[in-house]
Amino acid sequence: RDQGSSISSLVSTLVPVFVVAAIVFLIFLVLRKRYQRVYAPRTYLASLRQWELSPKQNKGAFGWRRQYMALKDEFVMGHASLDNYLWLRFFRMLAAMCVVGCLITWPILFPVNATGNASDVSGLDILSFSNITPGPRYYAQVFVAWIFLAWVMFVITRESKFFVRLRQHYYSSPYESACISTRSILFVNVPEAMRNEDAIRKEFSGVRKVWLVNVPEDLAEKVKDRDTAAQKLEAGEVKLIRNHVKRMAKEKKKGKRQEPNDVERNEPIVVKKKDRPSHRLPKLQFLPIGKKVDTVDWARAELSRLLPEIRNEQNKLRDDRSSVQGACFVEFETVRAAHIAVQKRGIKNKAKITPKEIGPAPENVIWPNIIKPFWKVQLLNAACTAFVYFLCIFWTIPVAVIGAITNIDYLTSEVPFLSFIDKIPKVILGLVTGLLPVLLLSILMTLVPILCNTLAKLIEPTHRAIQLKVQTWYFPFQVIQVFLITTFSSGAASVTAQIIQTPPSAPTLLAQNLPKASNFYISYFILFGLLSAALEMLNVMPLLGFLVLGKLMDTTPRKLVRRYITLAGLGWGSLYPKFTNLGVIALSYSCIAPLVLGFAAMGFFLLYLAFRYHALFTLGTNVSTRGESYARALRQLITGIYLCEICLIGLFAIGVAESKEAIGALVLMVVFLFGTVGWQLWLWGVVRKMEGDFPSHEGGGEAFRGSIQGHADGKGGNHTPSPSREPTPQRSFADRFKAFLFPETSAAHAARMISSNLEVSSRREYTEKEHAEAYIHPAIFRECPVVWIARDEGGLSKREILESREEVGEGLEMTDEGAWITPQGKLEWTENPREAPIWEGDVKY
């Protein structure tokens, strides 16, 4: 234990994590073949268009490996979404960055650090900055930092340029440019003088259609109540029928009913009171108490009251132009015209009309927020942001305690009440100081993005904006709490006893021991690289959903279908900050503890492999950020460069007290810091210029021309993606090197791969009704949802449908087609979502 905790902690963390990860991966291999819906839904789901399907996997435990290896990452972009592709590219970039970092730092810094002459340093700590004393060795740290951080800057610059051009190519493709949302812009703060279509058309050129926003709050509340009543009726009817069927089966089994069923005898079906479901009507929604009512009777009464009221109000509002509010959606003729309109508003905005978001999907709009006054949005935004920063302070205490646990063995000799730690076996102590803090920190951090998401819903106009806002808030929280607070608490705890004995030596002791906090992050990368990757392959939550939650919660045909057809998506706002922070940690420790880079490279690569499997075979996209979350992550990654430079400057400054030779290293590092600031300002200017220079071609230019054919049937023809075929000719080494240096060329190549993968377009023309209602508030045109129940052999479902239609009247559509209840009371359906009564087609705005 006198040799430090690095080696014991590393081994004690690595071995159990590796064993658990191997077991989890074996479980995945066993379950994959049995549960195709969990592990390969993109290969067969009927709700997907033909071109969206991935190649079917071969049989056997490793039958997926052939397709997994044959498909390129760009396949995800052409068959799923741009966000999913960039998510894979993010991990691939981080892994490559760390691998090159190892090649740069290890050959130089390992010998320099290992041959240092610092005292009281042992174990893996001899490979870190802790083992060198102020002097000429500092210059090795400086020049290695220059080379490595310059490489990181080049990668970020290249990826930023690549992203801008790739997104422009992607949304200029025939498929994407045909989407209404791709050519549309949400404008807010529209003055009263411009709240008419003529004024909007006069302000912008190339306008195809204008939707003036009217948010009928009273009608929206009634529509919400109507949909709730319809859901209650649906759930209540299914439960009533199942209770009746189960009771009849029990009576038959006991011999009480040997005669033919009531339908065969033409006798009325008798439903006992205990078969009828009921619920309470709480006076306050959050209280589970209130008047108890019959669910079916209550729902019918509510629908009979609400349907005529809603129908009358909808008829009035469809042609009402007097209630227009301060927002509008504008569709342009081309994608380029939409981008020019955004640039125009940014340069000159006399009318004060503000482009809030380009490419808003109608289903993602948060209607109450887009009409909020500008001052109210700004006030809420400031308050919510201040509260998030307050959380950074509030969370410091538990996070600091967790960080101190990683090096708590350093305190045992000086703090009497911790002496019992000396009696703990080394293996157990290694687990406590290595694995336990990582698990505790992971649990603690899960609460924060939930809170950030709740706050963002108060101010942002769309779900995409919510994800980006959560990413903006959650990243600094991750850096401060998961990284900085843990680092300083861990490093300070290592030397607390020595500082108590000799206070004047505090600066030197901190300079020697702060790098020891890297022990925690080595464990952190081991956990994320091995265990998180294995758990990601196992797909735990969808697996539990189908094995456990589905059986408990899917009590109606609608819920069965939704669970079956809904592909899981990733929450970009909460995921990107977590892994961007890992990148920041790797960069920050790259020069003072370069061993971290090796474990980081392994962790990022394993996570890339795991996420790649799901991007190819399981993942959908819940909310599209149009790749903006990736661009934001690149900008946030620059934080790691600054932290690395500031940390080295601080350590060099502390070393100046012992050796004047450290002054040169300090000055050189300060110069590089100013150079980094200049580079970042230059990069911002370059990216803004590229974004303003939108390609003049439509339909993706030569990269796409002639590669995609239009079909009107919505199924995409008979195209089957072929992973074995090379989509484009093989490029020479010179071409690859050119593409690496000039990302515009690489983006064009990726665009050609999209067109090769997506050979047949499923884009069909919008109907006149679909186009007209694209950006109209749903409450104004949405009909009552179909009430879908399950039929039974006794005919009770038919009787319930007739009674509901009679009591509710016009406006209720109710059916029992496509789902049934077995004599044992089990709910089943046809498992063809396109034949389900609730299938709404595959309109993509």
From TrEMBL:
Q: Where is the CSC1/OSCA1-like N-terminal transmembrane domain?
A: 10-159
Q: Where does the sequence pass through the membrane?
A: 6-31, 90-109, 138-157, 379-408, 428-452, 473-500, 520-549, 561-579, 585-611, 637-657, 663-687
Query: Its domain of life?
Result: Eukaryota
Q: Could you tell me where this protein is found in the cell?
A: Membrane
Question: Where does the record place the CSC1/OSCA1-like cytosolic domain?
Answer: 183-369
Q: Could you state a single Gene Ontology molecular function term?
A: calcium-activated cation channel activity
List cellular component terms (GO): plasma membrane
* Record domain CSC1/OSCA1-like 7TM region: where: 383-652
In what residue span(s) does the 10TM putative phosphate transporter extracellular tail domain sit? 743-833
Q: Where is the composition biased (Basic and acidic residues)?
A: 257-271
PANTHER family referenced in this protein's UniProt entry, alphabetically: DOMAIN PROTEIN, PUTATIVE (AFU_ORTHOLOGUE AFUA_5G10920)-RELATED, PROBABLE MEMBRANE PROTEIN DUF221-RELATED
Concerning its family, UniProt says:
Belongs to the CSC1 (TC 1.A.17) family.
Record-given protein name: DUF221-domain-containing protein
The organism's taxonomy opens as:
Eukaryota, Fungi, Dikarya, Ascomycota, Pezizomycotina
